[in-house]
Design a protein that fits this description.
This protein has 66 residues and is an alpha+beta fold. It contains one helix and five strands, in the order ββαβββ. The chain has a three-stranded antiparallel sheet with strand order 3-4-5, with helices on one face. A hairpin with a 7-residue loop joins strand 4 and strand 5.
Length: 66
């Protein structure tokens, strides 16, 4: 990925194996979100990827593991 100023981001050369994910539609949607995102927001527990002023493309939440 490349950070471009305040809250601007681009993901370069995004690829997937299409072998490790049992739900391929989820993997494809995630890869599409990464390739489309141009900005982000961060809070205490989440990262939100956005495109322009449209609705969020992906919302990633930190989960505490035990």
């Amino acid at each position: 990925f490349e950070l471009k100023g305040m809250n601007r981001i681009s993901f370069l050369r995004v690829i997937g194996t299409q072998m490790a994910c049992p739900a391929l539609d989820i993997e494809n949607g995630f890869l599409k979100a990464l390739g489309t995102a141009d900005n982000f927001n961060v809070s205490d527990t989440s990262l939100v990827l956005n495109r322009a002023r449209m609705a969020p493309l992906a919302r990633l939440r930190a989960v505490k593991s035990e």
